[in-house]
From TrEMBL:
One of its GO terms (biological process) is peptidoglycan biosynthetic process. Residues 22-100 form the Mur ligase N-terminal catalytic domain. It is found in: Cytoplasm. Residues 114-317 form the Mur ligase central domain. Its EC number is 6.3.2.13. Belongs to the MurCDEF family. MurE subfamily. Residues 339-465 form the Mur ligase C-terminal domain. This is UDP-N-acetylmuramoyl-L-alanyl-D-glutamate--2, 6-diaminopimelate ligase. GO terms for cellular component: cytoplasm.
Length: 495
């Protein structure tokens, strides 16, 4: 595509070289530069893209965009046919350029962004599934992968949750070309801080809740909250959980557009209220109050808190112009969410539940919900996440303490940490002597097997924590991992 650089809002400070170029692709990793690429020098926590300008030029980059003119300018004389641009912020420039390069594909989609400490993946997936059931073909961008309306699509993700801006707009372009009319996506606080969604005006922004998380990145809760709030400055409408004390008030004060509130309290004054939840063998039923009418909801999902996540998704559909009666009529067809209170039936009436709750609040919630299901004993796997804040690890033990018969402590994504150090950090959170049996394992695979070995007839095995994207981050490498495969192999060997 021919790009006229003065037609793109890059906030240029300096430019040398041709005003237009035939651009073949966008790259922020020099390893992915091809002939004709526009290479963006992104400054990250561990590296600086300006250090790879030479490599990008050797591979045929047609444009170099960075934020440090002193590092960019020296290459201009040696490569007069290349465009060199200095901008105020490389990440903002990458977002603006990506929107232009992919011909504003985002404008052809209804965009629903979901943020919150807990429930992002579940709620965004409920939006994806609900919109597709309603006949509004929808894609998904989030923790469990990239999907178009027909299912998962092969895509090498750049981040665990919200992709880099150039990837987002490439995915939007793919969805629009596929015929999808909407996109549901998780929007993390880090993504907001790193301007990955800059330039996107969300048709609906959803707030689930907020609690302490990602302090290894944000350092303070105030910084974390400020990043989350940014989503609601980029929205046309919003769905807000007014039961959440941490953030709802700030959103409502700032919103100057239509908002639907949701709650589980009848006296809250919320627009959408869910009550009278009944757990059944095939899922749950609850009553949904809206505009002075009560609707009976039947859905094949588990976990009372998921009534709230589902209600948020229903709010997004309402704000997108769908009638409540039509929404309620399709809810019995809602599929389970991968790794979110995902129920697997095992032999001898065992129930294995995959729920990758990885915060103390989420773990507490899921364990309370699991205990409501009929069972003999509960065996729970709890993990410290090596690439996250170590101060959170003992809190995971505190959240699990006294709620299970057996707790298996392990590590997810150890990164460059010694797995034993992570396990020991989690163990610090337990009361001594232990209130339940505590076992340990230094890999998630070993921990899953240990939990299954401990189980007997009519037991529930809850596999919690942060195994995402089908891999474990071990010393910078992503090693394939699947709890489901381990479970299947374990019971196959038992037979």
């Amino acid at each position: 595509m021919e790009i006229q650089f003065d037609h793109v809002q890059l906030a240029e400070e300096h430019r040398l070289g041709p005003v237009s170029q035939e651009i073949s692709s966008i790259a922020y990793n020099s390893a992915e530069v091809i002939s004709g690429s526009a290479f963006f020098c992104i400054v990250g926590e561990n590296t600086d893209g300006h250090l790879y300008i030479s490599e990008a030029l050797e591979k045929g980059a047609a444009a170099i965009i960075g934020s440090d003119w002193q590092q960019v300018k020296p290459y201009a004389e040696a490569f007069p046919n290349v465009t060199f641009i200095a901008v105020k912020d490389s990440r903002s420039a990458l977002a603006a350029f990506s929107i232009h390069f992919f011909e504003r594909a985002q404008d052809r989609l209804v965009k629903v962004g979901v943020t919150g400490t807990n429930g992002k993946t579940t709620t965004a997936t409920y939006v994806y599934n609900l919109f597709n059931l309603l006949g509004m073909p929808c894609g998904f961008l989030g923790t469990t992968g990239i999907y178009n309306s027909s299912g998962k699509t092969p895509y090498k993700k750049s981040t665990p949750t919200t992709p880099i801006s150039s990837d987002i707009h490439q995915i939007f372009s793919h969805l629009a070309a596929f015929g999808d009319r909407a996109a549901a996506m998780e929007v993390s606080s880090i993504a907001l801080d790193q301007k990955r969604v800059e330039g996107i005006l969300f048709d609906v922004a959803i707030h689930t809740n907020i609690s302490e998380e990602h302090l290894e990145y944000h350092h303070t809760f105030e910084n974390y909250l400020a990043c989350k709030l940014q989503l609601f400055r980029q929205a046309k409408t919003a769905v807000v959980n007014i039961d959440d004390q941490g953030m709802a008030k700030e959103i409502l004060e700032a919103a100057d557009y239509p908002v639907l509130t949701y709650s589980q309290m009848l006296d809250s004054g919320a627009d959408l209220v869910w009550t009278n939840i009944r757990i059944e063998e095939s899922g749950m039923r609850f009553e949904l109050h809206f505009q002075q009418q009560v609707h009976e909801v039947k859905v094949p999902l588990f976990g009372e808190y998921n009534a709230g996540n589902l209600t948020a998704a229903i709010g997004a559909a309402l704000l997108s112009g769908v009638e409540m009666e039509q929404i309620v009529s399709v809810l019995p067809g809602m599929p389970q969410v991968e790794g979110r209170f995902q129920l697997i039936e095992g032999p001898e009436n065992r129930k294995i539940i995959l729920d990758y709750a990885h915060t103390p609040v989420a773990l507490d919630l899921v364990m309370r919900e699991v205990k409501k299901l009929p069972h003999n004993r509960l065996i729970t796997l709890v993990a410290g996440i090596g690439i996250r804040d170590f101060s959170k690890m003992p809190k995971m033990a505190k959240a699990a303490e006294g709620k299970a018969d057996v707790v298996v402590v392990t590590v997810d994504h150890p990164g460059f940490n010694d797995p034993n150090d992570v396990v020991n950090e989690v163990l610090k959170g337990f009361t001594v002597p232990y209130k339940q049996q505590v076992l340990t394992a230094t890999t998630r695979r070993a921990a899953v097997v240990t939990a299954l070995q401990e189980s007997g007839p009519n037991d529930i095995i809850l596999l919690s924590s942060g195994c995402i994207n089908g891999a474990q981050n071990i010393r910078g490498e992503f090693i394939p991992h699947s709890d489901e495969e381990i479970i299947a192999d374990f019971f196959l060997q038992q037979n």
